[in-house]
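Milestone 3.1: sequence recovery, worked example.
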């Protein structure tokens, strides 16, 4: 270990010394032998003005630095602190480089010191944290951090974090520490001496490591069998509700309030299950529907000794049910409960593949960082579910290599089989009373010959308004050039120790004849060239089409009919597709012939690592052939019940093309494959009905022949007092102006809103193009950067990352399209204003919508009334539901689409909402009223 650690944090006027930015505050904490021996803090006179957004971020003003010393006078103290020490910082690259450049600017030499980055180390040694921002780490770890973004406070918290990391390092098993050393050498932090010291200490202390299962040079958390409880006093559901429910709820929930809607829903679920009914239940926000269906489901599962499947649309809700509601349920029911969480196989780590990955060297920083994270995570996780950790974006390729899939199963030769995370999850599901899964896995199970889920007859579908979309996605197909390119890269022979060389060595070790691979490699090259040409032709063909529609992510989209398309380019495309198909058949034959000597011999004598490699190789050829089969079906086959379309990246590479197909109607498939095979299904959501009617969902989901019952449970929130619907009368109709003019007017109104209300606003768009235009306008006006503008598809980052940025801001606007209309929970001051820019009708040029319109017309229906309007109303209710999330919330929803009051159908949007006051007036009047209301 090092003798002294100097934990440093800087506050600066910006990011670049070269562009004139300077330090305005320095904080330092000196540690030795796990103790703080010295602290240092000072404001610094930068000689330049502090930008307004830095003032707002740090709280440091011109008054604070007025009498502060200039940086040159502080340098001797800094250099003295750093002497013979190790520099530690949170995001050390920035602090070290900024400090070095400003010191050298004053003519001093910055010392050569080891550097440790606590961001990097926190990711490795605390892999299950939700965020690695210093303020959020401090909150999660319970550190006092009263002045975030002030150097002295940040340095103190960083020092505490560093000490926690050292402590965690000392607790890890020796196997893990030893595996970390070669990987840490490829990272930024000079951490190896500390790791070696920890290993030496562990050797001398001989600490008991019985909590770990140490196997094949990996240490994983040992899973203890849960003791069975003798508390098995079973009561009927009816007796329990009469005698126990209320008192147990008071015990389980500290702020329990009896909710009539929740108890009504419990009764509805109980009756449906026991009478083998299908039932649609719309439960308004705040009902507490999770407990309302889980409790009667548990009693049913217990009494009938069979599992109940609970399926949700999103992984976060699936985990919320498991992590938040399960502990409550354990305190509520008078018998031991068994609830299992089951996700798709690709969510789980394959230990066999990860073990192999450790023997493969990578130069990629994020891949090596992720290997370190997984090594530590293995000492903590009992599930192996990747959702528990945040893998860096640049390491997604590693996860594709180490995730569980069909190739993970190599039979008896796999020494990891008994420890397999995926099979453990399946075993737990087989023994569970409630299995929590998601719609995607549920749909996969419908088509799977070998069932993934345990045998069941009773199902609860939460977020059921998404079932049609998920089923459509699952029953459809897609491919793109990148998918092929990834496979060809894996089957390439250009890199050192490629698959042919490896396979030949295996044959030689086992004294088997090895055929020439020249023919197979020629075929692979030919297929790669043809695939590249195919996607280039397709890109060019679509690019020349008129009236292309735009997707949410800025792609151009074209619906095609393979038997109707004409022209030399399309003909060349079909010929190229057929060439790819014929070559793929030859590849399948050539690869099978290559492996034939293996098939003719007993596999048992082939060593485990070789079998593992062969299985992996077979998987990649299988994936290639499956991808080609998808391509063939998308371009050379036609099904009138399916819609086909292509998307291109207009500014992307000339082969950046994506092909899709989806069934136009999933109702028959759902009826035959799912509902007909169940005894009782509960479909619930906060948005199922359209103006009190469930007929749209019943028809679209194929429930018409099952005589489903329906029920609407209103929200317990007092919308009449808590919310307002505000409709400005001075916003132009988009039909009377151009897109640019309308967007400019919307931008002006939003800018006024931001100036008058200093809180947070969610702005919901239906068009990515309009979102981008409005974003650009407001960004130009936001000179002082006091408003944090976050735009989906404009601001970099995932949906979760954008949400974090929004939550962390005091004054912000979040611009979102489709995925932001729901699944956002921002109670209290986190959200006081929602703006719905346009009524959320699906774009009529969306290929699936077009095809559904055509189908409805053929059946003599009205596409607008039968599809467009119900869909839009359900989406509108979801957007409105983002505002009020608790009984104390207050706020307003602005609707910038005049059609809600000027058209006959517009009233149906308002009638589908809870009893909320509606106000129409000029925008400035409504804005004044909104501010007074808050």
């Amino acid at each position: 270990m090092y003798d002294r650690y100097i934990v440093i944090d800087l506050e600066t006027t910006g990011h670049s010394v070269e562009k004139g930015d300077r330090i305005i505050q320095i904080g330092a904490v000196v540690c030795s032998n796990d103790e703080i021996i010295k602290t240092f803090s000072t404001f610094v006179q930068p000689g330049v003005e502090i930008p307004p957004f830095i003032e707002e971020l740090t709280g440091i003003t011109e008054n604070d630095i007025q009498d502060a010393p200039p940086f040159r006078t502080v340098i001797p103290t800094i250099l003295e602190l750093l002497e013979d020490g190790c520099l530690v910082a949170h995001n050390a690259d920035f602090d070290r480089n900024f400090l070095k450049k400003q010191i050298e600017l004053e003519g001093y030499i910055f010392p050569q010191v080891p550097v440790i980055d606590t961001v990097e180390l926190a990711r490795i040694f605390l892999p299950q944290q939700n965020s690695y921002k210093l303020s959020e780490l401090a909150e999660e770890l319970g550190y006092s951090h009263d002045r975030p973004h002030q150097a002295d406070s940040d340095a103190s918290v960083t020092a505490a974090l560093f000490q926690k990391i050292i402590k965690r390092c000392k607790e890890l098993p020796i196997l893990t520490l030893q595996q970390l050393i070669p990987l840490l050498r490829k990272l930024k932090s000079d951490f190896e001496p500390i790791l070696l010291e920890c290993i030496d200490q562990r050797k001398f202390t001989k600490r008991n490591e019985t909590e770990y299962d140490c196997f094949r040079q990996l240490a994983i958390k040992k899973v203890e069998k849960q003791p069975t409880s003798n508390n098995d006093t079973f009561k009927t559901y009816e007796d329990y509700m009469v005698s126990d429910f209320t008192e147990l709820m008071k015990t389980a929930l500290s702020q329990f309030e009896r909710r009539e809607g929740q108890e009504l829903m419990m009764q509805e679920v109980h009756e449906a299950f026991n009478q083998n009914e299908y039932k649609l239940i719309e439960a308004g926000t705040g009902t507490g529907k999770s407990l309302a269906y889980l409790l009667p489901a548990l009693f049913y599962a217990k009494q009938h000794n069979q599992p109940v499947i609970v399926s949700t649309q999103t992984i976060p809700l699936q985990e919320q049910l498991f992590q938040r509601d399960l502990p409550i349920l354990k305190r509520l029911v008078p018998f031991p409960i068994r609830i299992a969480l089951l996700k798709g196989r690709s969510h789980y780590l394959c230990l066999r593949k990860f073990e192999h990955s450790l023997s493969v060297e990578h130069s990629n920083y994020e891949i090596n960082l992720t290997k370190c994270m997984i090594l530590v995570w293995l000492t903590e996780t009992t599930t192996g579910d990747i959702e528990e950790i945040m893998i860096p974006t640049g390491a997604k390729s590693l996860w594709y290599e180490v995730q569980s899939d069909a190739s993970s199963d190599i039979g008896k030769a796999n020494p990891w089989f008994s420890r397999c995370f995926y099979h453990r999850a399946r075993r737990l599901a087989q023994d569970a009373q409630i299995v929590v899964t998601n719609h995607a896995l549920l749909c996969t199970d419908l088509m799977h010959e070998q069932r993934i889920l345990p045998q069941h007859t009773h199902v609860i579908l939460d977020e059921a308004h998404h079932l049609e979309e998920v089923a459509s996605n699952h029953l459809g197909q897609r491919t793109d050039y990148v998918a092929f390119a990834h496979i060809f890269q894996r089957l390439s022979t250009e890199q050192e120790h490629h698959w042919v060389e490896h396979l030949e060595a295996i044959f030689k070790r086992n004294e088997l004849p090895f055929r020439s691979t020249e023919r197979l490699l020629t075929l692979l090259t030919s297929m790669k060239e043809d695939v590249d040409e195919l996607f280039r032709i397709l890109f060019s063909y679509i690019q020349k089409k008129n009236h292309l529609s735009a997707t949410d992510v800025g792609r151009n989209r074209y619906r095609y009919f393979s038997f109707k398309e004409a022209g030399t380019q399309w003909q060349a495309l079909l010929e190229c597709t057929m060439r790819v198909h014929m070559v793929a058949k030859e590849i399948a034959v050539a690869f099978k012939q290559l492996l034939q000597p293996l098939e003719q011999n007993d596999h048992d004598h082939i060593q485990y690592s070789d079998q593992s490699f062969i299985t992996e190789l077979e998987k990649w050829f299988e994936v290639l052939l499956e991808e080609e089969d998808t391509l063939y079906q998308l371009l050379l086959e036609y099904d009138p019940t399916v819609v086909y379309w292509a998307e291109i990246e207009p500014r992307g590479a000339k082969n950046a093309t994506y092909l899709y197909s989806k069934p136009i109607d999933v109702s028959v498939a759902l009826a035959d494959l799912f509902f007909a095979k169940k005894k009782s299904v509960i479909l619930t959501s906060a948005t199922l009905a359209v103006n009190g009617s469930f007929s749209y969902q019943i028809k679209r989901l194929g429930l018409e022949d099952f005589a489903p019952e329906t029920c609407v449970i209103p929200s317990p929130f007092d919308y009449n007092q808590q919310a307002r619907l505000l409709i400005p009368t001075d916003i132009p109709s988009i039909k009377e102006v151009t897109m640019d003019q309308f967007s400019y007017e919307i931008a002006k109104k939003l800018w006024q809103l931001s100036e008058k209300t200093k809180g947070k606003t969610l702005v919901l768009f239906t068009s990515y193009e309009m979102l981008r235009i409005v974003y650009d306008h407001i960004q130009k006006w936001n000179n002082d950067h006091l408003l944090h503008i976050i735009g989906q598809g404009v601001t970099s980052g995932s949906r979760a990352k954008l949400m974090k940025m929004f939550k962390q801001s005091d004054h912000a606007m979040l611009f979102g399209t489709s995925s932001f209309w729901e699944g956002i929970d921002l109670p209290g001051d986190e959200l006081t204003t929602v703006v719905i820019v346009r009524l959320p009708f699906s774009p009529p040029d969306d290929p699936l919508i077009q095809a559904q319109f055509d189908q409805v017309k053929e059946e003599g229906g009205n596409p607008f009334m039968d599809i467009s309007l119900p869909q839009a109303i359900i989406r509108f209710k979801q957007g409105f539901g983002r505002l009020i999330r608790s009984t104390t919330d207050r706020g307003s929803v602005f609707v910038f689409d005049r059609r809600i009051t000027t058209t006959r159908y517009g009233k149906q949007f308002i009638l589908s909402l809870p009893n909320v006051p509606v106000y129409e007036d000029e925008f400035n009047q409504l804005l004044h009223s909104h501010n007074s209301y808050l």
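The radius of gyration is 31 Å. The longest strand covers residues 23-32.
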